[in-house]
Design a protein that fits this description.
By secondary structure, the protein is α/β, with parallel strands linked by helices. The protein is 40% helix and 19% strand. The protein has helices spanning 13-43, 55-69, 80-88, 102-109, 158-169, 173-176, 186-194, 205-208, 245-253, 257-265, and strands at residues 45-51, 72-78, 95-97, 118-123, 125-129, 149-152, 180-183, 200-204, 218-221, 230-236. The strands form 2 sheets. A 5-stranded mixed β-sheet has the order 2-1-3-10-4. A 5-stranded mixed β-sheet has the order 7-6-8-5-9. Helix 2 links the parallel strand 1 and strand 2 (72-78). The termini are far apart.
């Protein structure tokens, strides 16, 4: 058998206890450092719930914002009404960009936002078709060649509500009811139009001016006087367990000169 030699070193009990204390403190400090780093990583990213009409315009806006601040953004596209319902149910959104002021005001009154909403832009409505040779006008919607007219669900999407106002204003809503097909949001409405599932439809001007859509189909702007102004609002969502400073940075950036230039390129009105 091997001859093991053991050396017994006397040790002070108090010294052992001190070492244990220092080791525990060290572990606690390491844990705090990791926790802080995790928090910093978490807050270097914000989640933005945005109305579907902003889908294309926000791509360059978010890119520029991230370049400037180092903050990454996750964009969740959907109808304003659906986003509002999700926020009330506790969805972890940092910023809500609505297609109107009604929904963000609703959240503000419920105490779910850090402040009252502000208008950052005014949206414009257009009629869009992918069908070659189809004459585009409000008056032509009763034409026999048009069997389906797409618009966003007016119950949850402000652009859909604006489209109904146009039809009511021209006194043709009743005669067109059987032709109307509703998308959950502007995004789904665009799919109906683009795929020709609907011969024509109402959408946001920001969609047809997007680089991805330029030159595809034909469109005409709907007279602004035919519908109530589409005042688009933004709010920071009150998330008690999260630092809202990064969300505020995006909120402020949306009102910056850089963001306004992009919004104008996509047909929005600003500074009114």
């Amino acid at each position: 058998m091997p001859n093991w030699n053991f050396k017994v070193v006397p040790c002070n009990k108090l010294q052992i206890e001190k070492n244990l204390v220092f080791n525990v403190i060290g572990l606690v400090l390491i844990a705090l450092v990791y926790a802080c780093n995790g928090a910093n990583n978490e807050h270097s990213k914000i989640t933005i719930a945005a109305a579907a009409n902003t889908q294309y315009a926000f791509e360059p806006i978010l890119e520029k914002f991230s370049e400037k601040t180092g903050i990454s953004c996750e964009l969740i596209i959907g109808s304003s009404g659906k986003h509002t319902a999700q926020i009330i149910e506790g969805a972890p959104f940092d910023v809500f960009v609505s297609a109107d002021m009604k929904y963000p005001l609703m959240l503000y009154k419920k105490g779910l936002t850090t402040a009252s909403p502000e208008i950052y832009a005014y949206g414009k409505l257009v009629l869009w078709t992918m069908v070659d040779g189809l004459h585009i006008s409000i008056e032509n919607l009763n034409d026999y060649a048009i069997n389906h007219i797409a618009l966003a669900n007016p119950k949850t999407a402000p652009y859909g509500q604006a489209a109904l106002e146009v039809l009511e204003k021209h006194g043709i809503l009743d005669s067109l009811k059987n032709k109307l097909v509703y998308g959950e949001s502007v995004a789904q409405t665009n799919q109906f139009i683009y795929s020709k599932s609907a011969e024509i439809g109402f959408t946001a001007q920001s969609v047809v001016l997007a680089p991805e859509m330029k030159g595809k189909g034909n469109w005409v702007k709907v007279n602004d006087s035919s519908y109530n102004r589409i005042s688009q609002g933004v709010v920071v969502i009150n998330q008690p367990n999260r630092n809202n400073s990064q969300a505020y940075k995006f909120y402020k950036f949306l009102f910056s000169k850089e963001a306004k230039i992009i919004l104008k390129e996509f047909g929005y009105s600003v500074d009114e």
